[in-house]
Amino acid sequence: MDLLPTVRDHPFDPPAALRRLAVDGPLHPLAFPDGHVGWVVTRMATARAVLSDARFSARQELRHMPYPHPLGQESSAPAIPGWFIRMDPPEHTRYRRLLTGQFTVRRINRLIPRVQQITEEHLDMMARAGSPADLVQDFALPIPSMVICELLGVPYREREEFQHTTATVLKLDADKHDVIAALTKLHEFFVRLVAAKRAEPGDDLLSGLIAGGELTDEELRAIGMLLLVAGHETTANMLALGSWTLLRHPEQLAALRAAPTLIDNAVEELLRYLSIIQFGAQRAALEDVWLDGTLIRAGQTLVVSIPAANRDHTKFPDPDTFDLARDAAGHLGFGHGVHQCLGQQLARIEMRVAYPALFRRFPDLRLAAPDEEVPIRTDMAIYGVHRLPVAF
Known about the structure:
Layout: H1 16-24, E1 27-31, E2 37-41, H2 44-51, E3 56-57, H3 91-100, H4 105-110, H5 112-129, E4 133-134, H6 135-140, H7 142-152, H8 159-170, H9 176-199, H10 205-212, H11 217-247, H12 250-258, H13 263-274, E5 281-285, E6 289-291, E7 294-296, E8 301-304, H14 306-309, H15 344-361, E9 366-367, E10 389-391
Parallel strand pairs: 2-8
Antiparallel strand pairs: 1-2, 3-5, 4-10, 5-8, 6-7, 9-10
Helix pairs in contact: 5-7, 5-15, 7-11, 8-9, 9-11, 11-15, 13-15
């Protein structure tokens, strides 16, 4: 029984040891850093079963972390009010209902022209600054950061502060005191923001939640923090890592350029192929459950490995091949079940706009450093790259 494999032999692939486990079967005993003994799920059908079964809990205080974290001990406490991703129904259902009412089709579709404008503005700035560039800082990070700021009603001038504090919170080897200080800064930021929105509401998601009158300031602050962190970190890393993937698969990039309608398929295949939630989702068994012929004992934590499930050969033929023509429907890039990502349609829109715009503006875009010199985010909870040097 080993710890969760984390060592990668290629930046686009899950750890080879994890992929070997997936070939052997859907469930494997797993050792946790705190001494707990649980399971890792490596096949798609079993992963979807766990994520949709109410007998497996997302509650923070019941789960064990599959990797060391600066706040590992604090994670044994119940989630703070509003931190709905680490709650079960009915608490989770209440928050989800309120947020679904704000993530309306009208609001998301209304953002499309703005996403296009923001993308073009940053491409203009890249062009003016000239080659070389860092695709993370100049393109992948600012676009979703600005979009989520406008959606939530966060002043974009504050972006450097929340980008830095978010990076500290997500860093797996950060000093505990630095993480606590970063969380305190984020909390104080949202104390000020919620107070400002109560005094002068706008046409944004946070103001809409306040107008509903069902949430306390404490809940609003937690929800705002959660959406801000998730809304820019995940998409930013998909944009950077996805761009690198396309550059390293020129035949697939050429196919996308020749048939722009492939972009919807391309986004889904990138989500499947890359799986930036690199450690997966954790669930705790609330009772003894038989799963695929294996007895999961009450209290045991299961790590649903999204990278392994998205490379499951029983679901996706030739899963380690990146193929934009593949039907990647059913991937777990946005999770599954009641905790499926609320912002997935916005993330899709950002990627559908940004990838084609980037390669249309810079047809000769290329890496400006060898692959082995690109700094990988193996030290972060969200996988991706810290920097991506490019030339054009």
